[in-house]
Amino acid sequence: MLGGMLTFFFLVIFGLPLAPSIILAILISTIVGITFERLAIRPLKNAKPIRLIIITIGASIFMRGAAMLIWGKDTHALPAFSGNDPLYIAQATILPQHLWIFAITILIIIASRLFFNHSIIGKAMRACAYNAQVASLVGIDVKIMVMLSFAVSAAIGSMAGIIIAPLTMTSYDVGIMLGLKGFCAVIIGGMSSGLGTVLGGLLLGLLEALGAGFISASYKDAIAFIILLLILFFRPEGLFKKKETERV
Amino acid sequence: MTKEKRQILIFLIFALALLITPFFLQGSYYLNVLVFIGIHTMLAVALNLLLGYAGQISLGHAAFFGLGAYISGILTTRFSLDPWLVIVLAAVCAATIAFVIGFPILKLKGHYLAMATLGFGIIIYIIFNETVSWTGGPSGLSGIPSLHIGSWIFDNDLYNYYLIWIITLAVMLLSINLSQSRIGRALRAIHDSEVAARVMGINARVLKVQIFTVSAFISAIAGSLYAHTMTFIAPASFGFNFSVELVTMVVVGGLGSIYGSFLGAAILTILPEFLRFFHDFDIIIYGLLLIIINMFMPGGLISGLQSLAEIAAAKMKGKTRGDA
Amino acid sequence: MLRLEGITKIFGGLTALKDVSLSVTTGSITGIIGPNGAGKTTLFNIITGLYTQTSGDVYLNQKNISFFPPEVLAGIGLVRTFQNVELFGQMTVLENVMVGLHTKSHSGIFSCAFKMPGQIKEERYIREKALQWLEFTGMADLSGIQAENLPFGKGRLLEISRALAVEPRIILMDEPAAGLNSRETAGLAHLISRIRESGITVVLVEHDMELVMDICESIIVLNLGKKLTEGTPREIQENEAVIAAYLGDG
Q1: Where are the domains of chain B?
Q2: 3-class SS at A13?
Q3: In chain C, residues 35-54 whose CB comes closer than 8 Å to chain A
Q4: Chain C interface test: which of B182, B191, B202 (most C C-beta within 10 Å)
Q5: C58 in a domain, yes or no?
Q6: β-strand partners of C170
């Protein structure tokens, strides 16, 4: 569906810089997501797809530029949520931040699963993604759903940016790599499959680490993209999903 | 065929204007800017064939430009091959790569296609950076020889100007011809409705790959010429930002207009020269331009100019002509 | 001419078509009718290579064309129009028809870019031929208009003109009368007869019963993905099962 796809493009690419408070950051990017949808996507609902694509690309690089403008080109490190002393669990060293990332990711997955499978709004959003016309016939306000999906993915995207920031440092151009890798994970897992995405993410991380180990660390990012290309070429519907028929 | 004659006339005037421009300019600075406009025009025209006519986005076109530049640079500096031969080799090489990746990549649509081309661009960019023993890595490759015909060396700005612009004009002319032929119509048909185009007997899949290949071929030639006129190249010129800049040129000038590509290339080359602050904010400006032009001026600047010219012509003749 | 054998199409768990067999004789006008959801458009999409059937075969003049893509089918003389009019909106009326002549011309990228003599001649031929087709459908005076600015009825006509330019042996029309007023429909009926007279076999899916009964020699009725019956217009009008299908299950 349009909403989900577009948001991915522009919001996850938007690497979230040092924020005074996490809640505020999520809120702001949610608002930005909604505003973008209202100002640029909705008026052009009937335009050629190529225009929508160009606009989302335009918006994503604009955000990136704006972030650079506001926070400068220096990198910032977010303080870790609970100290930097590594924990030792069965001979493995783990930073507390890793645990945070794990916990929050699992939380988000569970929450989104509950949301999409059990709440009315979540079900309505899936209906829109499947067939917007029929959805509107049964009384779902497609416009609001598109907006909501923008908001939700904006919020999750910025959340991801925040939890990972203490580990990777954050700067205006960190978003693009993270965003692309996020996109890789989604493609590998298959669109709109929560579990698939997680498996995709794990697989990508694993292959990347293996590749870096066996070939060369400097090609780590290239490996991620080669995997992306291979998946897109051979299984664009994702590794864990059955093929869908396109309607003509 | 008055329409056809008028088009030939427009092209001749355009070409003549560009060829006599150097006589009115002083100093090499402006010539240099114009050389850049020429190279950018070639690239924008190449991308426009794909983006404006066939309606297929590429966010990795800087990679083909870079391939041309690096293949030329490496083969002339390390193997002392003849630069002209290398230009052809580089173009064929880039076109072959485009052809091979074209089949799987152009099966994708919309954002998937954007992501895949972007991924391709980044892979090539990383290779430029990391194969230090060949490319010189991030610090670049220098000492690329200038082109020459016999003992006539293209080593000053005036010669380079003519070298670049004669080739650019040729590329423009050939692209205009192409766009007005059955191939051009087939490409636009794919853009408007791929299903209907196929039902009309157009092999959309093959044609898209063909135009992608042609586009890569032209981009690589532009890259080789860039390498030989600058004599120095570095990966930074061929990254994601430049791919985005190319898309912006095409969109600002006008999707599906060859002269529009020139206009877009000219504007985006000149702007940073005059607005010093541009360099820090280039990516923001590209982003804004892409959004604004698409929302409010879908035909790009060239369509605005065209309607202005039509109004002016109508006023001068005192009557309106219903020319399409 | 066109023969279908045991066509079945299953989408996910939904059976859209079940074991449909039919044949269309050369030079006839055949109508396919049936209530909404009977699978008429799906059948068209399978014949024209846009969908792949789950099982069954399609033959054109004894040749198995089951897995031919649409671009190949156009080359051997099978073409269609669309229910929701698929024009090339950004191109002029004339250019739309010129695209229809794609299979009748062969210049490649190289000869087009360099304007080789053969290409110039071919281009002239394409233009003349396209104008002839526009005259055939009575649209010659609109040739310079951009297709997306055409009124709906003219758009339908343009789509037919464009399909004729392919010089097909058989043309499939998906609801050609939908959205037309009664005068336009009468014009369409006349045009379809003329198309048949020029030796082209016509198959149409249509809801306008008057039109179907008027011009078709043979009618095939689909209901719920199965072939209900077939026959002449008179036979169909008197068939109880058909009446039940239309009135009963809707």
Answers
A1: 31-238
A2: coil
A3: 45, 50-51
A4: B182
A5: yes
A6: C78, C201
CB C43 within 8 A of CB C53: no
Report residue A191 as tokens: 């669109």
Question: Does any CB of chain B come closer than 8 Å to the CB of residue C87?
Answer: yes
Same domain (yes/no): A113, A34: yes
* Global model pTM greater than 0.80: yes
DSSP-derived secondary structure for B154-174: --SHHHHHHHHHHHHHHHHHH
Provide φ and ψ at B84, rounded to 5°. -65, -45
A124 lies in the same domain as A8: yes
CATH number for the domain including C235? Answer: 3.40.50.300
Domains held by chain A: number: 2
Q: Give the domain extent around C236.
A: 2-87+169-249
Chain C positions in Cβ-Cβ contact with residue B177 (cut-off 8 Å): 112-115
Chain B residues in contact with A51 (beta carbon < 8 A)? 294, 298
Tens-of-pLDDT digits for all 324 residues of chain B? 578 888 899 999 999 999 999 888 877 888 999 999 999 999 999 999 999 999 999 999 999 999 999 999 999 999 989 999 999 999 999 999 999 999 999 988 877 788 889 889 989 998 999 888 888 888 899 989 999 888 888 888 889 999 999 999 999 999 999 999 999 999 999 999 999 999 999 999 999 999 999 999 999 999 999 999 999 999 999 988 899 899 999 999 999 999 999 999 999 998 887 776 666 677 788 888 888 888 888 888 888 888 888 888 778 776 544 444
- The minimum CA-CA distance between A91 and chain B, rounded to whole Å, is 35
Nearest CA in chain C to B209: C109
